[in-house]
Amino acid sequence: MRTFSLWKKTVWTAALLALSSSAALHAQEAPAPEPPPTALERAVQAYEAGELKAAARGFTALSAQARPLPLADYNLAMMHLREELPKPSARRAERLLKRAAAGGLVRAELALAQLYEQGLLGKPDLAQAKAWNLRAAKRGSSEAQVALATAFYLGRGTPADPEQAAHWYREAAKAGDVGAQYLLGSMYESGYGVPADLRLARYWYDIAARNGDEGAPYKIKAIDAQLGN
């Protein structure tokens, strides 16, 4: 069974302390009462507690509103894809995810890309996966940027385009993705998609190494030998 990560939301809001208006007493008032959880938070809490029927009822009610809640659509779609509902449907999940994506939820765009890439509707559709990753990548998702760069690098669902691969790996690398940092170093080292530049290759390998990539230090030593450092 293929699984997707269900969205989780922090449910508690920090209490605020208010100072008394009495200048003479300078007393501190009691913390403001914690607001009750919203309907969405209750549904998420039910899911996390393993109460799947209650969670499904909550997400379904929010999804059926006149103005559906994108996060409710997304979570309900995930329950379909995780086969946690009596009659799970990948097609129903697709519709819910598209509505959540239209509502501005980047995570829904990523989920749609995975749905098409993994062929959950029958067979993989790499062109659709690339299109949804592109939408999410343009909105700043480093996960989508890496997936899109890899599609251009390998020519999966799109013609191979080394320059586009380098562009999106760079965007993800700047956002802190260690794998993208290493791959960008490799592209500068080999001159694939970018002009060959050992110093830039070393720069990105060094960042990857500082972020924990185990292979990057060896690449740095090799480049230092070539540069005479």
Descriptive keywords:
single chain; 0% strand; mainly alpha; elongated; 229 residues
Task: Produce a short descriptive summary.
With 229 residues, the chain is mainly α.
What order do the helices and strands come in, and which of them pair?
Elements: H1 39-48, H2 52-63, H3 70-81, H4 90-102, H5 106-117, H6 126-138, H7 142-154, H8 162-174, H9 178-190, H10 198-210, H11 216-227
Question: What can you see in these coordinates?
Answer:
This protein is an all-alpha fold and 229 residues long. It is built from eleven helices and no strands. It has helices at residues 39-48, 52-63, 70-81, 90-102, 106-117, 126-138, 142-154, 162-174, 178-190, 198-210, 216-227. α1 (39-48) packs antiparallel against α2.
User: Shape from CA axes?
Assistant: elongated
Strand content: under 5%
Count of DSSP strands: 0
Number of helices: 11
Biggest sheet statistics: none
How do the helices and strands follow one another from N- to C-terminus?
A: HHHHHHHHHHH
What structural class do helix, strand and pairing data support?
A: mainly alpha
Distance between the termini: 51 Å
Which whole number gives the mean pLDDT? 88
As residue ranges, the low-confidence spans are: 1-27
Which radius of gyration do the C-alpha atoms yield?
Answer: 24 Å
Q: Give the % helix.
A: 55-70%
